[in-house]
Structure formats: C-alpha cells, structure tokens
Amino acid sequence: MNKAELIEEWGKRTEAPSKAAAKRSVEALIGIVTSTVAAGQEVRIGGLGVFERVYRKARVRRNPNTNEVIDVPGKWVMRFRPATKVKAAVSK
User: Fold this and answer.
1) Per residue in 30-46, pLDDT tens?
2) Which residue from 45, 43, 40, 48 is spatially nearest to 82, judged by alpha carbons?
3) In the chain, N or C: fewer CB atoms in 10 Å?
4) Dist. CA 2–CA 83, nearest whole Å
5) Distance (Å, rounded) from C-alpha 15 to C-alpha 11?
6) DSSP for residue 66
7) CA end-to-end span of the chain, whole Å?
8) What is the distance between the alpha carbons of residues 18 and 61, in angstroms, rounded to a whole number?
C-alpha cells in the first residue's frame, strides 16, 4: 500500500467528507509523528506500537566486492516497535 492508497482507505474507513480531508488527516498524523520523534520523544499508539528515536553507533563494514574497509558513522534513526497484537496478526 502506498500513500495514495492509504489516503483512499483512510477516507473510506473514517467516512471523511472528501479525499482532500482524508489527505490532510494522514499528512497531519505523519507530521506529528515525525516532529515528535525528531524532538527525541516517543509516540505510543495503543494497538499499533511505538515510534522512537535511537542512536545507531558508528561501526566498521567491509565492501564484499572489493574487500575495502568502510567506516560507517553513527546516526540517529527512527525505530518502530510493533504492539503484541500487531506481531500476532502479522505472524499468522
């Protein structure tokens, strides 16, 4: 499912008055999650999971084609931890 399909499904399930209203809702949710996690806070959505910001430490990797050693710098990334119900639904 891509973003356009998500917006269409969101509009159907929420009975949004228009596709534009559904699009604004989806984009608002994305914006809230992004800005909150970027600020270092967690977003917990019951029944879905937790979005959080974690630091991925620097590491050394090797290019398998050239055997060259590559230093990968550390960076902040967003991690999603699914809720138990989501894990169970996906593993069926």
Assistant:
1) 999 999 999 999 999 99
2) 48
3) C
4) 22
5) 6
6) T
7) 19
8) 49
Distance CA 44, CA 51 (A): 7
Q: Name the DSSP class of 67.
A: -
Q: Which stretches of 3-68 are assigned E, i.e. beta strand?
A: 43-45, 49-56, 59-62
Contact between residue 26 and residue 18 where contact means Cβ atoms under 8 Å apart? no
pLDDT at 39: 97
- Retrieve residue 33's tokens: 């999650």
Going by pLDDT thresholds of 50, 70 and 90, the confidence category of residue 73 is very high
| Residue entry with tokens 């959505």 | 45
pTM equals: 0.82
Q: How confident is the model at residue 92 (pLDDT cuts 50, 70, 90)?
A: confident
